[in-house]
Amino acid sequence: MARPLAWLRDRGFAGRVLPVNPRYDELGGLPCYPRLADVPGPVDLVLALVPAERAIATVEEAGAVGAAAVVVFASGFAEVGGDGVAAQAELADAARRAGVRLLGPNCQGLYVARSRLFATFTAAGERVLEGSSGIAYVGQSGAIGGAVLDVAASRGLDLTAWVSTGNQADVDVAEVARVLVADPDVHVLAVYAEALPRPADYVRLAAEARTAGTALVVLRSGRTESGRRAALSHTGAMLPESTAFDLVSREHGVVLVDDVEELLAAATLLRTQTRPRGPRVAAVTSSGGAGILAVDRCADVGLTVPELAEPTREKLARRVPAFGSVANPVDVTAQLFNDGGGAFGEVCALVRDDPAVDAVMVILTMLVGETARALAADLAATVADAPADAPPVVVVWMAGEDATVEGRAVLRAAGVPVFSSIAVATRVLAAAATAAAPPAAPATPVPRIDDAWSLVTALGVPVPRSVRVPVAAEAPDAVAAVGGLAALKAVAPGLEHKTEAGAVRLGVDVAGAADEAAALLARVPGAEAVLVQEMVPPGVELLVSVDGGRDNWPPVVTVGRGGTETELHHDLAHALAPVTADTARALLDSLRCRSLLAGHRGAPPADVGAAVDAIVRISRAAGADGLQELEVNPLVVGTHGAVAVDVLLERA
C-alpha cells in the first residue's frame, strides 16, 4: 500500500481519502473506485501515483471531476531532456485546459501539519511529525527536501509544512513560498531553489515575507561562475547571474545560505532567537586553539571579533581562572567546567550582555557524559533567561555526535543551533547578520535615446567637448575646436572596446591630427568616422554601468575600478537601480580602490561628490525604454568634477 494512502488514513487527516484503482475493490480497508469519475462527491486534490505516460490522462480526469489541484509524482519529464521537455509542456497545457493547478511532475508532494495532510511518499515521512516548530520548507529537489525533513526531525525541528515542487511545470517555489509566508503558523520559511522562472514572483515573495515578519532563509544552487553570460561590455563579462537575486534578497533581509546544514541552522536561529544586530562576534571557549580558529573564520566571512568593555573583563576575571583569558575570544579553560555551579552560563551571559557584542559563539571541545549534559543545561537556561532582544547564542561542539547526543538535544530544544564546524557557524552568523539594504530609489522615466553620448548628456553627466569628423582632413580644425590637444577614437559599427582594437590615439595636436585620423580610418575595419574628443586631465578612473534588468530581474547598477584593466582588478560593487546618493557613496566606500579617491601617496583627493552625482545620474538610465545596458568606462574623477570619457550603449 502506498505511503500517502496509509499516512492519510492513519495520521488524523479529517477529509475523505478515496483510493482509485481499477484492479481493487478496497485498499487499506478503504473502498476503492475504478475511475475518478466513479468517486462520489466532490474531489479537492488528486495524488497521481501513476507512470509518466498516464499523467496527462489523470490530469484531464481530475479536471473533469472538478478537482482543484493534482500532484504528479512521476519522473521522465523535462529533467531527462529531449522528448521529456515536450511531454512536460503537454502536461502543463493539459492542466491549464482542465482548470487544475499542477504540483510537479518529478516531485515528492507535500505535508501540512495543521490539516494532517501527508501527500508525499518521502521516507522522511516515517518520522513522527507534529508540526510544532513554526518552520516551513519548500524546494524543488525531492532528495534535498527529504534530507531537510529528516535531518530537521532528528534535531527536534518538527516542520510545520513541507512542499516539494519538482520540475515546476505549473506551481513553482516562489508561489508556494508566498502562501507559506502569509500563514500565521509559519514564523520561518526555509527555501531551496534551483530555478526561479519568474523573478518578479521572487521579488514579491521577499517583500511579502518582510512585511509579514516571516524570516526567509534561501539556499539557491546554480550560482557558479560558469553561469555567467557572454557579453560585449566589461560589466556583462564580470556580472554573475546571481547578482540581482542577491541584491533583491539583501534589500528585503533574506538570509542566503550555502548548504542544508546552514539552512536548518539559520532557520533554528531565526525561529528562537533574535537576528544579530551586526557583525561583531564574541567567542567563548575552553581551547585557545579553537579561539584562534574562530577569529580566522570570522575574518573570512566579514565578521569582526571586538574587544570587550573593561567592566565586562573585570566581571569575567572573577569567574575565569587566572591562566585563562578574559579577552575576546574568552578562554575559560577546562577548569571552569570542573567548578560547576552555573559558572559557565554566567560567563556566557556576561559576554552576551557586552555592548560591543552582536552574537556569541560558544565553542566546546571534548566534553562528554554528565559534564556535557550539565553544561548544556546551564547554557540552555542562560539563553532561556535572556531578554527578548539579547544577542543570539550558537554552539560549536567539536566532539563526536554519538558522545554528545543528550547535550546537543538539550541545546536544540532550547533553540540553540549546534554545529560541528566553526566555519559553518561563522557563515550562518554572517548570513543572519547581513542587514537589509536600503531600497532602490524611485524609477524615473527616461525617453528612448539611441545614441550613447546623447543619453549620457541627457542624464546630466558631464562629457568632454567632442567633434565627429567623417574624413581625416577635418581633424585639425576639430582638434583646435576642442582645445588644441585631443583624443582621437575610431567610430565603427560593433566597435566596443576601442583600446584593445588599437582604435584610440591620445594627446594628438593640430599638426598631427590629419595623419593620425587617416591612420585610424585605415586601421580599423569598417571605420566610418573619427571622434575628436577633448583631452580630460588625469584622475581616478571608475566604471559605472546600469542594465535594464537581466532575465526579468530588477535593474542593477555596477560601480568599480575602471579603465583598460577593469577585468584584471575585478573591484566591483552592485546595487539595485536607480540608486540614492547615500547608496552611491556606500558603493564607492566598499571598493578596494577607494584609497585612490582619498588621495593615494600624496595625490590630491578626488571629487567624490561629483562621482556620487554621476553614479546617481547614470543609474537613472534603468528607466530608459529598451535599455539593455549603459556603461561609462572610464568615468574620470578629478579634483574638481567627474567626466564620462567613454560610453557603451546596448539596446534590447
From TrEMBL:
Full protein name: Acyl-CoA synthetase (NDP forming)
Gene3D superfamilies for this protein: ATP-grasp fold, A domain (3.30.1490.20), ATP-grasp fold, B domain (3.30.470.20), NAD(P)-binding Rossmann-like Domain (3.40.50.720), Succinyl-CoA synthetase domains (3.40.50.261)
PANTHER family: BLL6376 PROTEIN, COA BINDING DOMAIN CONTAINING PROTEIN
Database matches in SMART domains: CoA_binding
Lineage: Bacteria, Bacillati, Actinomycetota, Actinomycetes, Pseudonocardiales
InterPro entries on file: ATP_grasp_subdomain_1, CoA-bd, Ligase_CoA_dom, NAD(P)-bd_dom_sf, Succ_CoA_lig_flav_dom, Succinyl-CoA_synth-like
Organism: Actinomycetospora corticicola
Span of domain CoA-binding: 1-77
GO MF terms, alphabetically ordered: acetate-CoA ligase (ADP-forming) activity; ATP binding
